[in-house]
Structures are given as structure tokens and as C-alpha cells.
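sry for the spam today, last one i promise. C-alpha cells for design, 117 residues
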């Protein structure tokens, strides 16, 4: 069982920045991938960014060049640096990890990001 706890959400003005963090209950080297998703009411959860075990990264087209995903093995965290935030980035952001041994996907409880003037 993997526990994930996200933090860093909040209220930010358009054009501003936020940094989200997700701390895992085990070493990040236990995971094939670590990802950030987001969800708004009435819509399915969508992928935002992913970092693989070899540090390859993938981003949704809508956030490329503005968001950066990274991981810190010493802190067992995956971060999402979000710059130039837009109103449409308002959502609950979730991190997930896929366990290398079993392939099981684990989710955090989410952190809310509100972009508003």
C-alpha cells in the first residue's frame, strides 16, 4: 500500500505561479512512473504531466512550456511547478504513482488550485 499526500494548492492570480508537491510513503525508485492529473467538476480526470523511472517526462499540450514535473528521491516527492497560470488551470490536482512490482496505480487525495483575479 502506498500513501500519497499532495500539498501546495491555493488561490493564485492569472499569470502567477504555484508549486505542488506530492510525498510518497516509499522510495520513488519503487515506481515506474509518477504523474499529475487534474479534474474539474463534471469532467473526467485528465493527465497533466508524467515522469518515468528514467526521468523522461511527458506533458499535455496545454501545459507544455509552462509546467515542469520533477522528482526528488531524497524527499520521496514529485513536484509540479506551474508558471503562467491561466483561469482554465483551476482544478483539483492529483498525483499518482504506478508501483513497479505490481503495476498497481495509487492516487493521492488531491489539492485544489484556483486561478482567479
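last one done:
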Amino acid at each position: 500500500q502506498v500513501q500519497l499526500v499532495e500539498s501546495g494548492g491555493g488561490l493564485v492570480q492569472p499569470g502567477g505561479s504555484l508549486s505542488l508537491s506530492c510525498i510518497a510513503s516509499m522510495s520513488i525508485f519503487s515506481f515506474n512512473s509518477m504523474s499529475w492529473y487534474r479534474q474539474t467538476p463534471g469532467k473526467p480526470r485528465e493527465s497533466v504531466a508524467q515522469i518515468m523511472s528514467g526521468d523522461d517526462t511527458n506533458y499535455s499540450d496545454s501545459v507544455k512550456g509552462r509546467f515542469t514535473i520533477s522528482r526528488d528521491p531524497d524527499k520521496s516527492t514529485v513536484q509540479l511547478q506551474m508558471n503562467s497560470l491561466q483561469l482554465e488551470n483551476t482544478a483539483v490536482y492529483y498525483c499518482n504513482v504506478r508501483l513497479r512490482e505490481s503495476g498497481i496505480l495509487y492516487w493521492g487525495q488531491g489539492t485544489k488550485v484556483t486561478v482567479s483575479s
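DSSP finds no helices and eleven strands in the chain. ok im logging off now
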